[in-house]
Amino acid sequence: MKGETLKIILMKNGIKQNEVARLIGDSQQKFNAALSSEDVKSSLIEKISAAIGLPISKLYGEEGETSTGGNTERFLSLLEEKDRQMAKCQDAERMVIEILHEKEIKR
Questions:
Q1: C-alpha distances in Å from residue 5, one per residue of 8, 24, 88
Q2: Domains along the chain with CATH numbers
Q3: How many other C-beta atoms can be found within 10 angstroms of the C-beta atom of residue 15?
Q4: 8 A C-beta contact, residue 41 and residue 6
Q5: C-alpha separations of 94 from 26, 69, 88 in Å
Q6: How far apart are CA 28 and CA 32, in angstroms?
Q7: Among 7, 28, 86, 88, which residue's Cβ finds the most Cβ atoms within 10 Å?
């Protein structure tokens, strides 16, 4: 995704760039440099999505309209599946920690 496209999407949603930079823990300068790119890294787009509570599909939606083939849809589907799997892993990790904590208390 082009940085300019991302800037427009943020602006259309009333989201200020300096606020996004703060939320993701970047300096304003570093964030501006990232948005000047012709190809913003997907990891940054994921961070932005999580920080502002806007689904990734919304961030890619405007660009996806002009995308070729089903690549955008497939990419979004994979990102959403990754998020579901990560949530399952985090739940499992919490359960393991609770079990270990309970065993430690019983000693």
A1: 5, 19, 32
A2: 3-106 (1.10.260)
A3: 16
A4: no
A5: 29, 40, 10
A6: 6
A7: 7
Q: How far is CA 74 from the centre of its chain?
A: 16
A 10 A CB-CB count for 7 gives 15
Q: Where are the alpha helices (DSSP H) in 2-107?
A: 3-12, 17-24, 28-35, 42-52, 56-64, 71-106
Tell whether pTM > 0.70.
no
Per-residue pLDDT of 85-101, as tens digits, reads 888 999 999 999 999 98
Buried b (16+ CB within 10 A) or exposed e, 51-81: bbeeebbebbeeebeeeeeeebeebbeebee
Interacting residues of 37 by C-beta distance below 8 A, sequence separation 6+: 2, 3
pLDDT value at position 72? 65
The angle formed by the CA atoms of residues 96, 49 and 55, to the nearest 5 degrees, is 95
Tokens found for residue 9: 């999407």
